[in-house]
Design goal:
about 400 residues, alpha/beta, Rossmann fold, six-stranded mixed sheet, 14 helices, about 40% helix, ATP binding, Multidrug resistance protein E, putative, ATPase-coupled transmembrane transporter activity, ATP-binding
């Protein structure tokens, strides 16, 4: 009897062992996710410390105010000093907790909360922002230690309000330049100055609010046109309609009973690529606090008619912004103020299209000439002599 029972139980051992192995493998796979989250939380350096510094400053000021109200004397926490003339402005010296070899980083950063108040309203947006200037000073950048530099001693200056076209072969550092502006990747050496301020003096949130990005593949969400153009609902209907008119999308939406309530399919499938780009430009116009517009080959996939419409928007509608465009088509740069040609992370040529195309020995002129004589003549006719 016992032998028969043992044989009967042994038959099911195979399936039970299979179940145990499957469960063990599943637990191990799930714990890998936990381990990865813990690694990212504990071992990956935070993208920026300025937000925590701002919070610490606000907490110290709040506590200081409470103490002074309680005791009736101006007790100031350690590390905070007030100007004698203006007690509303506090300056805090906070040691940076990350190592950096960049020349704009120092062991101690003097940061004033009033700096943000001068540029932002209560909602963290700058309402009336003029175009900003940009300066690169011997900037060097690599994506990771041990990898080669992608930007090598990059130096140039862009005055406020100019339209700049960045050209170069694949791997020349065009997209890397935009990443350093957004501080997606921090520079290794040198200094970037935005509107007269070192880039690291901005909090990451305040810095990125200065920029609006228009990518090669425009992004629209499932919903209504208004929700896509003004997702935070901070603009009036009249402002949204005016933005649509300025970018030339009024005719496309004229057939709708209410253009602002026109449905947008997932990814903007019911609009062409060019129309999606124009809607993204309208969204940029409605962004408050935007000084710089970054365009990464935004006209690479559109037809010539919409290409001209987009260039008209860049030249006239974005006249109050500083525009930096990674160009795919040379003819789109004819009306720009400055051409920046890059090679191996360096600027090899910089100047107005008018000057570069009329100098026979420039690389830019050779590139335009390679398009053919008719294209060369058309480009030269479109360029304008820079104002001296």
């Amino acid at each position: 009897g016992l032998l028969a029972l043992s044989l009967t139980m042994a038959v099911s051992i195979n399936s039970q062992l299979k179940y145990v192995v499957n469960q063990a493998a599943s637990v191990e796979a799930d714990m890998n996710c936990v381990e990865r989250v813990q690694h990212y939380t504990s071992n990956i350096e935070h993208e920026d410390l300025m937000e925590e510094i701002d919070e610490a400053i606000r907490a110290l000021e709040k506590n200081d105010k409470k103490r002074r109200e309680r005791k009736g004397d101006p007790i100031t926490p350690a590390g905070i000093t007030h100007d004698d003339d203006d007690t509303s402005t506090a300056t805090v010296s906070v040691p940076l907790l990350e190592e950096s070899h960049a020349s704009d980083a120092s062991p101690e950063l003097s940061y004033s909360p009033a700096d943000n108040n001068n540029h932002n309203d209560d909602n963290g947006r700058r309402e009336n922002v003029a175009a900003g200037s940009l300066e690169f000073r011997d900037v060097t950048m690599r994506y990771r230690a041990g990898l080669p530099h992608v930007l090598c001693g990059l130096t140039f200056t862009i005055p406020a309000g100019q339209k700049v076209g960045v050209i170069g072969r694949t791997g020349s550092g065009k997209s890397s330049l935009l990443l350093t502006l957004l501080r997606v990747v921090d520079i290794e050496d040198g200094q970037i100055v935005l509107s007269g301020r070192p880039i690291r003096s901005y909090s990451l949130r305040a810095l990125r609010q200065l920029f609006s990005m228009i990518p090669q593949d425009p992004l629209l969400f499932n919903g209504k046109v208004r929700e896509n153009l003004d997702p935070l609902n901070v603009c009036s209907d009249a402002q949204v309609r005016e933005a649509i008119r300025l970018v030339g999308m009024e005719d496309r939406l004229a057939a709708e009973t209410d253009p602002l309530q026109c449905p947008v399919e997932e990814g903007g499938a019911n609009f062409s690529v060019g129309q999606r780009q124009l809607l993204c430009m309208a969204r940029t116009l409605l962004r408050r606090g935007c000084s710089f517009i970054l365009m990464d080959e935004a006209t690479a996939n559109v037809d010539p008619t919409l290409d001209k419409q987009i260039q008209h928007v860049v030249t006239h509608v974005f006249a109050g912004h500083t525009v930096i465009t990674i160009a795919h088509r040379l003819h789109t740069l004819a009306t720009y103020d400055v051409i920046l040609m890059m090679e191996e992370g360096r600027v090899v040529e910089m100047g107005s299209p008018y000057d570069l195309v009329r100098s026979a020995d420039t690389r830019f002129a050779q590139m335009v000439r390679s398009l053919g004589e008719s294209a060369m003549q058309e480009f030269m006719a479109s360029t304008q002599a820079p104002t001296r």
